[in-house]
Amino acid sequence: MYIYLLTNPARTVLYTGVTNNLERQLYEHSQNLGFAGRFTGRYQCNLLVYFEICPDATQAIIQEKEIKGWSRAKKEALIASLNPDWVPIDVRTCAG
């Protein structure tokens, strides 16, 4: 399971999600698949700037909910801890 944070090209919006297939989920976000008017589509959040692997779905969901409750500053610090320049991550090269 993966917890991930996406941003838009202007880096003004953050989206936190959880999935068992990060590559597929990012593809769906980039293609705006699923429900019309989704948050990620509305705000063009399709740049992966942070992800972590969780051992199971329960832990991933707990962590996702915790992160969603954080302030913007705390989320930015989390991203900066592993990706200080907020360079979009190509999941195909690192998330197998």
Keywords for this structure?
96 residues, alpha+beta, GIY-YIG endonuclease, three-stranded antiparallel β-sheet, 4 helices, globular, GIY-YIG nuclease family protein, GIY-YIG_endonuc, GIY-YIG_endonuc_sf
Structural account:
- The chain is α+β, with helices and mostly antiparallel strands and 96 residues long.
- The chain has a single domain (2-93), classed as GIY-YIG endonuclease (3-Layer(aba) Sandwich).
- Helix content is 39%, strand content 20%.
- The chain contains four helices and three strands, in the order E-E-H-H-E-H-H.
- The chain has helices at 22-31, 39-42, 57-68, 72-82, and strands at residues 2-7, 14-19, 47-53.
- Strands 2-1-3 form a three-stranded antiparallel sheet, sandwiched between helices.
- Strand 1 (2-7) and strand 2 (14-19) form a beta hairpin.
- The model has no long low-confidence stretch (mean pLDDT 87).
Number of E-type strands: 3
Estimate the strand proportion. Answer: 15-25%
Number of domains: 1
- How widely separated are the two ends? 12 Å
Question: What is the rounded Rg?
Answer: 12 Å
Individual helix count: 4
Please estimate the helix content. 25-40%
Mean pLDDT equals: 87
Sheet with the most strands, sense and barrel status: 3 strands, antiparallel
What is the CATH class?
Answer: Alpha Beta
Order of helices and strands: EEHHEHH
Helix/strand class: alpha+beta
Examine the secondary-structure arrangement and name the CATH architecture: 3-Layer(aba) Sandwich
Low-confidence parts, pLDDT < 50 over ≥5 residues? none
Tertiary shape: globular
And the CATH topology?
GIY-YIG endonuclease
Biggest sheet, spatial arrangement of strands: 2-1-3
Q: What's the quaternary structure here? A: single chain
Family: Belongs to the UPF0213 family.
Domain GIY-YIG: 1-77
Protein name: GIY-YIG nuclease family protein
Organism: Hymenobacter gummosus
